Description:
By secondary structure, the protein is an alpha/beta fold.
Amino acid sequence: MLRREFLIGTLAISTFSESVFASADALIVNRTESCGCCGAWVERMISAGLKTEVNFVNDEVLRLIKSQLAIPVDLSSCHTATIGSYFIEGHVPAEDIRRLLIERPKALGLSVPGMPIGSPGMEMGSNKEPFETLLVFENGKTQAFNSHTPQTSV
């Protein structure tokens, strides 16, 4: 680890304290201020009844948070949240977060890698693509937690 990364990490942790990382009952969202889809995702979480707090951070701090939470780069997205002992990476649907909190699997968190069209915050009219919410384990391996397939009209 470079000295600069260590100092930034120490600063980030001391500046944001534990509010950046976890709350037993609130979804703590770390995002950049300029990302519109992040704001839309937060709105969907609030609309779904999740208590939500937002921390605006710069890109460097957001990368550091992802690293400290052990989120693999290939599972990364535009915002990172925590709730309880879990991370929530990307456009994860509220029902998947609720299920995670009920089932409490031995895992690090959930991820919807990339920014799939039709996922919460990424709505584009009737355009929707299938996507999976992945359960992420400590060893970096994943398994499908939920599959989201667009409904077709008959």
